[in-house]
């Protein structure tokens, strides 16, 4: 065996080992939960209360519920990092518009048991939805949460959806961040947002920052283009993925409040 051949075998072996490691550990790169239990809801969001729900595979998950003065509840499904405490400012802002809010945490997040997977997050969202079955509902999906709520909407339709910084699918977002890796064939979780939204008839609002370095704006625009129902696109000029403008900025809050108004007018026949 020549020196060149031995070197090629060593490189190939290292690559195979690296790919195997990525395959086994990929969910640690995708899901970045803050597992710390948040304080009681009322200490963070005025009027909020702690609630819980049980998933179809037996996990009891904690969440926060903020009552509203209007017959519209916003189910907030967060992104891949943090926990519900990080989204509390959004819940407060929506509450000021009279909207009820269910701020869920996935399995493994915010002191909840279990470990996150695509199928697990779907079970979590289905169980959360049961808590608000008596009112009109808007699904708010942040980044990865857009994958959660668009799949949820296929089984439990909503009156409207707001997708904040959505990607077409997880592989596309992964390829944008790791262009040197064969992301698509390696991924175990898919989150096919564009595929899902093409089957949803409810009105959809897509909100994205024009300088998003994590989910390229072109992916969010492609999600809007794929929508089957009425779609509204909101660009937040100069905003990056995790900027405050994408959490409680006026464009984001107005997108949700405006959709709630349209739903109410539609229900009233006006």
Number of helices: 9
| Structural class designation | alpha/beta
In the sheet with the most strands, the strands line up as 2-3-6-4-7-8-9-10
Strand content: 15-25%
Radius of gyration: 20 Å
CATH topology, anyone?
Rossmann fold
Mean pLDDT: 91
Instruction: Please name the CATH architecture.
Output: 3-Layer(aba) Sandwich
In one word, what is the shape?
globular
Q: How many domain modules?
A: 1
Helix content: 25-40%
Query: Could you describe the largest sheet, including whether it forms a barrel?
Result: 8 strands, mixed
Report on the architecture of this protein:
By secondary structure, the chain is an alpha/beta fold. It has one domain (31-267): Rossmann fold. It has nine helices and ten strands. The strands form two sheets. The chain has an eight-stranded mixed β-sheet with strand order 2-3-6-4-7-8-9-10, sandwiched between helices. A two-stranded parallel ribbon has the order 1-5. A hairpin with a 5-residue loop joins strand 2 (49-54) and strand 3. The chain starts with a helix and ends with a helix. 43% of the residues are buried. GO terms for molecular function: hydrolase activity.
């Amino acid at each position: 065996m020549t020196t060149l051949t031995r070197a090629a075998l060593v490189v190939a072996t290292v690559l195979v080992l690296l790919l195997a490691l990525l395959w086994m550990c990929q969910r640690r790169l995708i899901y970045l939960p803050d597992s710390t239990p948040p304080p009681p809801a009322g200490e963070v969001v005025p009027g909020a209360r702690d609630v819980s729900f049980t998933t179809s595979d037996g996990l009891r998950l904690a969440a926060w519920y903020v009552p509203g003065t209007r017959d519209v509840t916003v189910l907030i499904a967060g992104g891949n990092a943090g926990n519900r405490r990080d989204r509390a400012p959004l819940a407060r802002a929506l509450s000021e518009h009279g909207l009820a809010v269910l701020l869920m945490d996935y399995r493994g997040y915010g002191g909840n048991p279990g470990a996150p997977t695509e199928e697990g997050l779907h079970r979590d969202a289905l169980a959360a939805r049961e808590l608000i079955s008596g009112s009109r509902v808007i699904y708010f999906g942040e980044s990865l949460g857009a994958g959660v709520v668009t799949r949820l909407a296929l089984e439990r339709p909503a009156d409207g959806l707001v997708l904040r910084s959505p990607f077409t699918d997880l592989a596309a977002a992964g390829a944008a961040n790791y262009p040197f890796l064969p992301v698509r064939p390696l991924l175990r979780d898919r989150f096919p947002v564009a595929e899902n939204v093409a089957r949803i008839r409810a009105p959809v609002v897509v909100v994205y920052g024009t300088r998003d370095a994590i989910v390229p704006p072109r992916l969010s625009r492609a999600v809007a283009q794929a929508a089957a129902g009425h779609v509204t696109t909101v660009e937040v000029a100069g905003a990056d993925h995790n900027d405050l403008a994408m959490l409680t900025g006026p464009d984001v809050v107005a997108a949700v409040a405006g959709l709630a108004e349209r739903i109410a007018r539609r229900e009233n026949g006006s």
